[in-house]
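TODO from last week: model Granule-bound starch synthase.
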Amino acid sequence: AARGHRVMTISPRYDQYKDAWDTSVAVEVKVGDSIEIVRFFHCYKRGVDRVFVDHPMFLEKVWGKTGSKIYGPKAGQDYLDNELRFSLLCQAALEAPRVLNLNCSKYFSGPYGEDVLFIANDWHTALIPCYLKSMYQSRGIYVNAKVTFCIHNIAYQGRFAFSDFSLLNLPDEYRGSFDFIDGYEKPVKGRKINWMKAGILESHRVVTVSPYYAQELVSGVDKGVELDNVLRKTSITG
């Protein structure tokens, strides 16, 4: 934003953020087998449009106790519907630049439009490049949009049962990008889907938080947590 770019951040509405107001904009997204309605809350701070995705999957689970309940009821335990929660977030994030008419900046006004760059952070937003291609660019929408996938912590990759691929509502052609053999004993070894792997393969560029971390992730199986080979093939910068 300080360099003159128009910037929007999009995150779940985990709490009653006092400065964020209801935009009254709602969209429908398909999550698993159901159609869900999400709303957008917004505030403008330090030159950035801060958008919060409102849905019971987020706020009703957490209610302000964000320190330990964002991803599960307690540390080390996931919510059973995390795949659905973050599928919803990714789809809402792709809708926001097109449907929100934001006019808080003295330099910009109206919707962001379709010529945008999405920055997807960690496994929770790894479906963005997949949905961008399958749901939008295949229909002539967001034709020039790109996705940069940023890895903050490779230890958390979004590994789920292989049969769960059907929950994501993606064409079969994307199945290979998710296909992953988990070599760790816990919780279960074997074939799974890996959201982070798909995010790496389907994004236009892959980055991480520092040059040192980028080098570390491709230095071996342990440091890359079984994704080092994928990162070496696609390249990663910090």
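Done. The two ends are 20 Å apart (CA to CA).
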